[in-house]
Amino acid sequence: MAKDFTKELKKQMNLFGELDNECLSCQKPFDNKSKEHASTWRVAVRKDSVNLYCPECWQAATQAIKDVEENNDN
Fold first, then answer.
1. Is the pTM of this model over 0.85?
2. How many CB atoms lie within 10 A of CB 61?
């Protein structure tokens, strides 16, 4: 089991090499030398892809999810 976990972790870490230089949603450029960008931008790992989101797009997406969940509860 630990062997499978290590293999999967290595696979996901290798995906970071394929990380784009811009937000997937709005195409705002990502500065990989900026401490602010490194601490505020979000990376979403999905099976075989890695997606990068700026703080504004991440906030909009999380708010949209929250709104849908609230509407489903009503």
1. no
2. 14
